[in-house]
Design goal:
Oligomer: single chain
Number of strands: 0
Order of helices and strands: HHHHHH
Helix content: over 70%
Number of helices: 6
Structural class: mainly alpha
CATH architecture: Up-down Bundle
CATH superfamily: Phosphate transport system protein phou homolog 2, domain 2
Radius of gyration: 19 Å
Largest sheet: none
CATH topology: Methane Monooxygenase Hydroxylase, Chain G, domain 1
Distance between the termini: 32 Å
Number of domains: 1
């Protein structure tokens, strides 16, 4: 489970957008953040399809879609990194921005990896915990959505970072509660140990989305206060 949550700061000064109003790099960052949101939506849809119908044509189409989104996200991240160096943009904040992009990219990696795990391992989900799997997935994706909004705010409206971070903390805590409840149900059941272990593994992998989002939220809180100084 995750740690102590995001740090809270009060921002009094509205800073300008980090790259101005017309920068092409800002458009690429927007597209990069869009890809993270899209990855979360694809993952949520894929889990619902898997729980309803298992691995089939529709599920594999969503796996391929998730992989394509992750690939495009990697392309965008690398392109943004090159521009930050080639154009000597924001030298004082470059390290923080690069670190933020790499952390955010991990969210898409987690989505892609989880989709392939479902596709390859085909875990048999007991009917009584299918609603919990869907609830955990939805909460983890909500956590991702909130941290994407926090990241957008870092570039455009730094005073809003704290508000979005507070939502990340809320959703991450809810995901922890759901994950714990699910694992208690799984290990309190009469299922064979190997199935219990596999189900726990998938619960933890979904919950990892929320944990990673909270880690990014914590970093964003630091990056934001450094930008204000």
């Amino acid at each position: 489970m995750a740690g102590n949550g995001a740090m809270n700061f009060n921002f009094k000064i509205r800073l300008p957008k980090l790259f101005g109003r017309t920068s092409a790099i800002e458009a690429e960052i927007d597209e990069f953040l869009d890809k993270i949101t899209q990855a979360g939506l694809v993952f949520q849809k894929a889990v619902q399809v898997y729980l309803d119908r298992g691995v089939g044509e529709e599920f594999e189409r969503l796996v391929a879609q998730g992989s394509a989104i992750e690939h495009r996200g990697d392309e965008l991240r690398r392109g943004i990194e090159v521009q930050l160096y080639a154009q000597t943009l924001i030298p004082d904040l470059r390290g923080d921005v690069l670190g933020l992009l790499e952390r955010l990219d991990c969210l898409m990696n987690i989505v892609e990896s989880n989709l392939y795990r479902f596709s390859i391992q085909c875990p048999e989900i007991p009917g009584e915990i299918k609603p919990d799997f869907m609830e955990l997935t939805g909460t983890a994706v909500a956590c991702v959505d909130s941290v994407v909004l926090a990241a957008r705010a870092f570039f455009r409206d730094i005073e809003s970072v704290r508000d979005h971070n507070s939502k990340v903390m809320f959703h991450e805590h809810e995901a922890d509660l759901i994950s714990t409840r699910m694992q208690r149900t799984i290990f309190g059941s009469a299922l064979p140990l190997e199935r219990k272990t596999q189900l726990r593994y998938f619960v933890e992998r979904i919950d990892e989305l929320a944990n990673q989002a909270e880690d990014i939220s914590d970093a964003l809180a630091i990056y934001a206060i450094k930008r204000q100084i």
